[in-house]
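Q: Got a minute? One more chain.
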Amino acid sequence: MSPIARALHHRFDEVCQSELARLRRKTAALTPAQREQVDAITAEVTRAIAASVGAAVDGPAGAGLSDIVGRLFAISPADTPNAQGA
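A: Always. Here it is, folded:
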């Protein structure tokens, strides 16, 4: 996985977690088990979307897409969690 695809996955995870936290009041009536299911489904959908975009970025047309994706989602390869250690 390219650095920009890793950064994209990380950014999508951040947005997912932020939105789940923001919506806690709307889901307050759910049981803990139901909330866990909602969180798991939401994370799975988010990962699938990130994987699709990441695959496009890593694919043959990826060079042209990396800049666009970076601007769209305000990310760069330096934003990856492992960028400092790489």
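A: The chain has one domain: 3-75.
Q: Perfect, thanks.
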